[in-house]
């Protein structure tokens, strides 16, 4: 086994922007109704095409199939909108209903192509993220050292953005240790993960796919490698496509090098 002293980190930093609720409310659009938020990303469609709205599966030229509360008062003249960047069209009423069922953080994600409008945030509970370099290489990355990330989230009480507000949530398996090669691409992913942490997108509160436990902290769509010296569990190295896959998963959350990292 390796000498413990040889594993002392060369550099260490910690990041706690998710402690408390401060980073979450930065992205809230205070004073804007869900309809106002949705309209920011839409262009009016005066003559809807002969297609179905893929949210309610009713014809765009007809009324929305959504009959729920909170979306009244939308006139027929503005009942269909086109998302400005991707061009997909929906009933305004359906988009407002979809927004109301999400985090209501001022962002909107196209349900067809997943293009994100605004800054997407999640419901990750308060916690701590640390990272440092250890002087050992990962299988498949013999020419560089290793970045170790340590996530720690304590159990707590669910907030209004969680599935069951006011109910306790558990946090199993923390602190969780994760690994990246200390290469150019690995360091880029680390910087993007810091953005994801700040936006509360790395973890969520929900039902565990492995244990079936509900109201617990779970991973949220960005895969991490938690096995250090081998790949016996499938959660380690070598895995030639892992880094590129993580970059794509981060991109799906609206986190890219072009948008999030400062240029030299």
TrEMBL record:
<dbReference type="InterPro" id="IPR018957">
    <property type="entry name" value="Znf_C3HC4_RING-type"/>
</dbReference>
<keyword id="KW-0914">Notch signaling pathway</keyword>
<comment type="similarity">
    <text>Belongs to the Deltex family.</text>
</comment>
<keyword id="KW-0479">Metal-binding</keyword>
<dbReference type="GO" id="GO:0008270">
    <property type="term" value="F:zinc ion binding"/>
</dbReference>
<dbReference type="InterPro" id="IPR039399">
    <property type="entry name" value="Deltex_C_sf"/>
</dbReference>
<dbReference type="GO" id="GO:0007219">
    <property type="term" value="P:Notch signaling pathway"/>
</dbReference>
<dbReference type="InterPro" id="IPR039398">
    <property type="entry name" value="Deltex_fam"/>
</dbReference>
<dbReference type="Pfam" id="PF18102">
    <property type="entry name" value="DTC"/>
</dbReference>
<comment type="pathway">
    <text>Protein modification; protein ubiquitination.</text>
</comment>
<dbReference type="InterPro" id="IPR039396">
    <property type="entry name" value="Deltex_C"/>
</dbReference>
<dbReference type="InterPro" id="IPR001841">
    <property type="entry name" value="Znf_RING"/>
</dbReference>
<protein>
    <recommendedName>
        <fullName>E3 ubiquitin-protein ligase</fullName>
        <ecNumber>2.3.2.27</ecNumber>
    </recommendedName>
</protein>
<keyword id="KW-0863">Zinc-finger</keyword>
<keyword id="KW-0808">Transferase</keyword>
<keyword id="KW-0862">Zinc</keyword>
<keyword id="KW-0963">Cytoplasm</keyword>
<dbReference type="GO" id="GO:0061630">
    <property type="term" value="F:ubiquitin protein ligase activity"/>
</dbReference>
<feature type="domain" description="RING-type">
    <location>
        <begin position="53"/>
        <end position="114"/>
    </location>
</feature>
<dbReference type="Pfam" id="PF00097">
    <property type="entry name" value="zf-C3HC4"/>
</dbReference>
<dbReference type="GO" id="GO:0016567">
    <property type="term" value="P:protein ubiquitination"/>
</dbReference>
<keyword id="KW-0677">Repeat</keyword>
<dbReference type="InterPro" id="IPR013083">
    <property type="entry name" value="Znf_RING/FYVE/PHD"/>
</dbReference>
<dbReference type="GO" id="GO:0005737">
    <property type="term" value="C:cytoplasm"/>
</dbReference>
